Amino acid sequence: MNIPFRMQTVVAALGLAGVALFSTAHAQIKIAMVVPTTGPLTQYGDMVKEGAMTAVEMANAAGGIGGKKIELVPVDDACEPKQGPVAANRVVNSKIGYVIGPVCSGASIAAAPIYNNEGVVVVTPSATSPALTDGKNYHFIFRTIGRDDQQGPAAAKFIIEKIKPKKVAVLHDKQSYGQGIASSVRDDLKKANVPVALFEGINAGDSDYSAVITKLKSAGVDFVYYGGYHPEMGLLLRQAAEQGLKVKMMGPEGVGNPEVNAIAGPAVEGMLVTLPADFAANPKNAAVVKAFQDKKRNASGAFQLTSFAAAQSLLAAIKAAGDNPAKVADWMHKSNVDTVLGPVSWNKQGDLNSFDFQVFQWHKDGSKSIAK
């Protein structure tokens, strides 16, 4: 079954009745936004909030689902695995049946058993680790983003075909997301007989990576892939430049954060990053992009439109199946939804059947362009 759901026709598609975002009075359909509002990764939470808020604002501008109103409820998990279950219990105790988030893979993995056991429908727009869903037999956990084993091969393919390095170092932050995607890239490089001279973890949160940079220099690598987030990538770029290591570096969508520019300075120029395709450039999404712009939000960030699609998916499912999380999950497993990402559908374990990752080149002015 295919449910048309372009937000250009959101009024017709949803048939909603008006309510202000975050209104606490008479809100009958609550969706939790489980995002980091504290800690070093709050910008990723901001991206997800922008997407979910814009989608719900557009929906609420025209009303409610079956006369019911929609409310977004922010819940902080700091992107910390230890805080993931705490946030999940807050959602459950608040009797909220739907979640957009969690944002980070580690927190998502830790929280998923609680959500699934309690029958809470989760749609994460940003957690990419295969470990979230592989072998878990979850019924209530979904994504509107691809997995690391889709993103990693896209990165490796670009390295193999476009960079053609002589010797590569693959670094990671020792965490679920970073180490998982770094391992995927390493494995694909090895299959293509690209020498991986170094595969090593660094400690997230450190301020000095001179020891690993010395190792990179000693190993004679001419390309570095880093699996992790922007704070460490920014330091690696800056400190490598300071120590005279002139190599191209690449990372996953976790490094694609404007804050990396402030950390790395001019050394950020030319950083390669895999990101979701630029769905904001699709003319079919013009009305949605304008809605972002009207609120001074950026539709072209890493997770804004995957989050928008998460909200679209939940609202379409609630409209079709009713405000019942079990029926919503059943409907999502067997249906297609037309979203800002294009038509999306899920396999038995809640992963997207397909997703488009692209390689971008990052620039010191904060812009990005398709890497050639």
UniProtKB/TrEMBL annotation:
Annotated signal peptide: 1-27
Annotated keywords: Amino-acid transport, Signal, Transport
Pfam name, any one: Peripla_BP_6
Keyword Cell membrane: no
Ranges for domain Leucine-binding protein: 28-366
Family statement drawn from the similarity comment of this UniProt entry: Belongs to the leucine-binding protein family.
Record NCBIfam families: PRK15404.1 (NF011933)
Protein's name in the database: Branched-chain amino acid ABC transporter substrate-binding protein
Organism: Comamonas guangdongensis
Species classification: Bacteria, Pseudomonadati, Pseudomonadota, Betaproteobacteria, Burkholderiales
